Amino acid sequence: MSLKCETERSKTWQDFADGVPCVLGIDEAGRGPVLGPMVYAAAISPLDQKEELKNLGVDDSKALNEARRDEIFEKMQNDEEVQQIVAYAVRCLSPELISCSMLKRHKYSLNEVSHEAAITLIKDALACNVNVVEIKVDTVGPKATYQAKLEKLFPGISIHVTEKADSIYPIVSAASIAAKVTRDFRLRNWNFKEKNVKVPEAGFGSGYPGDPNTKKFLQLSVEPIFGFCSLVRASWKTASAIVEKRCVPDSWEDDEEEGKPQSKKMSGWLQPKNEDGDVAPKKSVYFKDRHMSNVLTF
Amino acid sequence: MPPKTRKAKQENDEEIEESVEDVKPTKLPETDESFARKFVVAKENTLPSSRIIKLRHPKEGCALFRISEDCFDEILAVNDGHRSFFYGESVISDGTIHLFAPYHPVFVCLPYLQKTSEKFVEISEILIDEQFKAIEELARNQRVLKALEGVCDVKDVLDVQLFRLNNEKMMEWMRKKFDALKKELELDAHKTLLECPDAFDRHVFSFLSDYLHPSLVTSVRLHLNIPEAPVTENIDMSMKRRAPEEDEYENEKPAAKKPKESVQKKKLQAASKGTKNISSFFTKK
């Protein structure tokens, strides 16, 4: 996985339904957990196939449990008839990608990352000749701003941004199923790229910070120097709190900029002194900028 | 899972904490001094038969230098305090790189040569220092003796070489050093610094001053004709506004002058962003 994010399309996504007008729904899974990827999914279905879509059972949020979701998604993946009714595409954002975006010099909030994923999916549908006429999206961040942003990017398409969109629009529910099942699968079958990651006997749990198995896994697997393996979203407070507590103290060059306390060992660096009272010369700006100084011992 | 009440949740958390506290994080390996290493950047194949000596530094204080038949270098440590090395299967926590940076021996000798301005003296009488005896090594070094001819008059008397500092020769030599240094720094300098030749000259000279005794700095600066810093450069970079009282009267002065100065000031500020105020090197002592 890592820092790349690619759009994975279902069999009938490209040129879906030969350009018949469609509704596109977007939902995500795995926003809150501290472990594993966040998955964004878009589902498309012809406007004139609303009944058929409902009949798949995507609608029935009360009946949707893990088993039922798996069942429906399996059909979406493999059943030819179903594939004429609905197609989907997913974007999997790895824990590393999420952490990086949130921790870079130019920080991208989780909301911005989410918006970007959704927008990329919509653009992908359009580029794949899907005749998108309506878009239904679950809210991420302030509703009005998100709606305006999307309307600006995709003029001429009817856009609805609402809370609980997955309960209101069957197409969003279908996207939600694709996202959840994909995420659950990728989490369950996570392949550690690191060697010897300590995982408790009961496994690492659901990945939610409140899950006791997840907590145990975090405490157990953290490496005192290198921190967490790539399953963990290092930018999450849950994770950084553990690093704070259980890893060796560290200092970074940009701590100064962020107003964090400086590590003691830097003091006296610029003008070395030794026990004999010898003092090295203060260096001019050129050398100071490059952290170069004379030495009194070697 | 049914929602937990706050109290139940807290108890659960404590339980988890307790059981996990038993699981201590992996212990770090003990330090093993046999893995300790120093990292040096030096001219190829010059390390054998080098000695590291402590000398009086021409600028102030003292420092370590490396001397051999063919080399004379200042030892510089490069480290921003946040680095370590991976070396084979080990980690070297000290991330310092030591540079053996070529250093012209004349710079070290000049403060000693000052005492020969009137008469010829034997080198062993010139390069002598109670506190830093290692200076005597330079007196024995052929390369150094040859180099001294660039700034001294030399007289051979009965198989003994005598040296006398020649001020004109020295100033010529300084000029050559300055010009060579300027050429090199041009490759490295910020565009806006290059656009202001006076400020750039001051920048080059500030570098050169690191190699000179303070008493020499004034005379060399004069000889090289380094322009003085204008008043505007003395303004502390952190000061965003002038005091209101001063402003009232300043408004009467020619308005035309102001825009030019502030543009130059902006350029200079941009060029010296993050650096110490250059003019602090030229404060009257």
UniProtKB/TrEMBL annotation, chain A:
<keyword id="KW-0255">Endonuclease</keyword>
<dbReference type="GO" id="GO:0003723">
    <property type="term" value="F:RNA binding"/>
</dbReference>
<feature type="binding site">
    <location>
        <position position="27"/>
    </location>
    <ligand>
        <name>a divalent metal cation</name>
    </ligand>
</feature>
<dbReference type="InterPro" id="IPR012337">
    <property type="entry name" value="RNaseH-like_sf"/>
</dbReference>
<dbReference type="InterPro" id="IPR036397">
    <property type="entry name" value="RNaseH_sf"/>
</dbReference>
<feature type="binding site">
    <location>
        <position position="138"/>
    </location>
    <ligand>
        <name>a divalent metal cation</name>
    </ligand>
</feature>
<dbReference type="GO" id="GO:0046872">
    <property type="term" value="F:metal ion binding"/>
</dbReference>
<dbReference type="InterPro" id="IPR023160">
    <property type="entry name" value="RNase_HII_hlx-loop-hlx_cap_dom"/>
</dbReference>
<dbReference type="GO" id="GO:0004523">
    <property type="term" value="F:RNA-DNA hybrid ribonuclease activity"/>
</dbReference>
<dbReference type="InterPro" id="IPR004649">
    <property type="entry name" value="RNase_H2_suA"/>
</dbReference>
<dbReference type="Pfam" id="PF01351">
    <property type="entry name" value="RNase_HII"/>
</dbReference>
<dbReference type="InterPro" id="IPR001352">
    <property type="entry name" value="RNase_HII/HIII"/>
</dbReference>
<feature type="compositionally biased region" description="Basic and acidic residues">
    <location>
        <begin position="273"/>
        <end position="282"/>
    </location>
</feature>
<keyword id="KW-0378">Hydrolase</keyword>
<comment type="similarity">
    <text>Belongs to the RNase HII family. Eukaryotic subfamily.</text>
</comment>
<keyword id="KW-0479">Metal-binding</keyword>
<comment type="function">
    <text>Catalytic subunit of RNase HII, an endonuclease that specifically degrades the RNA of RNA:DNA hybrids. Participates in DNA replication, possibly by mediating the removal of lagging-strand Okazaki fragment RNA primers during DNA replication. Mediates the excision of single ribonucleotides from DNA:RNA duplexes.</text>
</comment>
<dbReference type="GO" id="GO:0006298">
    <property type="term" value="P:mismatch repair"/>
</dbReference>
<dbReference type="GO" id="GO:0043137">
    <property type="term" value="P:DNA replication, removal of RNA primer"/>
</dbReference>
<keyword id="KW-0540">Nuclease</keyword>
<feature type="domain" description="RNase H type-2">
    <location>
        <begin position="21"/>
        <end position="248"/>
    </location>
</feature>
<dbReference type="GO" id="GO:0032299">
    <property type="term" value="C:ribonuclease H2 complex"/>
</dbReference>
Automatic annotation (TrEMBL), chain B:
<dbReference type="GO" id="GO:0006401">
    <property type="term" value="P:RNA catabolic process"/>
</dbReference>
<dbReference type="GO" id="GO:0032299">
    <property type="term" value="C:ribonuclease H2 complex"/>
</dbReference>
<feature type="compositionally biased region" description="Polar residues">
    <location>
        <begin position="272"/>
        <end position="285"/>
    </location>
</feature>
<feature type="region of interest" description="Disordered">
    <location>
        <begin position="1"/>
        <end position="29"/>
    </location>
</feature>
<feature type="region of interest" description="Disordered">
    <location>
        <begin position="238"/>
        <end position="285"/>
    </location>
</feature>
<dbReference type="GO" id="GO:0005654">
    <property type="term" value="C:nucleoplasm"/>
</dbReference>
<feature type="compositionally biased region" description="Basic and acidic residues">
    <location>
        <begin position="251"/>
        <end position="264"/>
    </location>
</feature>
<dbReference type="Pfam" id="PF09468">
    <property type="entry name" value="RNase_H2-Ydr279"/>
</dbReference>
<dbReference type="InterPro" id="IPR019024">
    <property type="entry name" value="RNase_H2_suB_wHTH"/>
</dbReference>
<protein>
    <submittedName>
        <fullName>RNase_H2-Ydr279 domain-containing protein</fullName>
    </submittedName>
</protein>
<feature type="domain" description="Ribonuclease H2 subunit B wHTH">
    <location>
        <begin position="107"/>
        <end position="268"/>
    </location>
</feature>
<dbReference type="InterPro" id="IPR040456">
    <property type="entry name" value="RNase_H2_suB"/>
</dbReference>
<comment type="subunit">
    <text>The RNase H2 complex is a heterotrimer composed of the catalytic subunit RNASEH2A and the non-catalytic subunits RNASEH2B and RNASEH2C.</text>
</comment>
<comment type="similarity">
    <text>Belongs to the RNase H2 subunit B family.</text>
</comment>
